[in-house]
Specification:
Layout (H helix, E strand, L loop, with lengths): L2 H8 L2 E6 L10 H14 L3 E5 L1 H11 L3 E4 L15 H10 L3 E5 L11 H11 L3 E5 L3 H10 L3 E3 L17 H10 L4 E4 L5 H9 L4 E4 L1 H4 L1 H23 L1
Parallel strand pairs: 1-2, 1-8, 2-3, 3-4, 4-5, 5-6, 6-7, 7-8
């Protein structure tokens, strides 16, 4: 899929992030493929997926374009979203349409620069590149480095953005006004209203993950709110 076709396909649409960590009940490519299939039935235009096996399984059952990433921890580096050329090559081989990678200013493993990683992708594939950032300056730097899309994925997840209000709608709006590179709204978007607001503020598309595909977290949110109310009612009767 070429860049123009992909951007047209996702414009004003929902991308569903189908990911589960090894310690979560729905971890496994079979589960994630089913989750992605359900997302497609609901109208998702694209899937964001983590890991080679999940990408292959999801691509097979949905035929939707895939934003692929590999989460990998390296010693002495906080960067974990597609951190090196090793993960990039695995994503290329897995058939990802778009490669998402950390585009923050944090130190990378192997001292590889963002520009090096982008160059590697351009030389070795036809994949588009999504730069995951946490600040306005990182977003602009990612554009200058040559990414095809900028995603606000990491706002509140880097040490220097933990105080950001989430979802980071101001960052989405600021970037959308500052560049013609498509801005993808991602990160702690919990409701349809928040997703719609991100589009109003200039996002090209919206990624939602936890609120759709991590039921154990959504269940806990309901339980926590119910418990707060129950505790308050009990206290008022004392």
């Amino acid at each position: 899929m070429n860049k123009k076709n992909f951007l047209e396909r996702i414009k004003g649409q929902l991308i569903v992030s189908c990911q589960a960590l090894p310690n979560e009940p729905l971890h496994g490519s079979d589960y994630m493929a089913k989750m992605a299939q359900a997302a497609k039935v609901g109208g998702a235009a694209c899937i964001r997926a983590n890991g080679v096996e999940d990408i292959k399984a999801i691509k097979q059952v949905t035929q939707l374009p895939i934003v692929g990433l590999i989460k990998q921890d390296y010693k002495n580096s906080p960067v974990y979203i597609t951190p090196t050329k090793t993960e990039i090559q695995l994503l290329i081989d897995a058939g990802a349409d778009v490669i998402a990678l950390d585009a923050t200013t944090q130190d990378r493993p192997n001292h590889e620069s963002l520009e090096e990683l982008i160059r590697y992708i351009r030389i070795n594939s036809q994949c588009l590149i999504m730069g995951d950032i946490s600040t306005f300056d990182e977003g602009i730097a990612a554009v200058e480095a040559g990414v095809d899309l900028v995603s606000t994925t990491l706002s509140s997840y880097t040490p220097y953005t933990k105080d950001r209000v989430i979802p980071d709608l101001p960052l989405i709006e600021e970037l959308a006004k500052a560049t013609t590179t498509p801005i993808i709204a991602e990160g702690n978007i919990k409701t349809p209203a928040e997703a719609a607001r991100a589009i109003e503020l200039g996002a090209h598309a919206v990624v939602v993950g936890t609120a759709i595909t991590r039921p154990q977290i959504v269940t806990k949110q309901f339980c926590d709110e119910i418990k707060k109310t129950t505790d308050r009612l009990l206290q008022s009767k004392q």
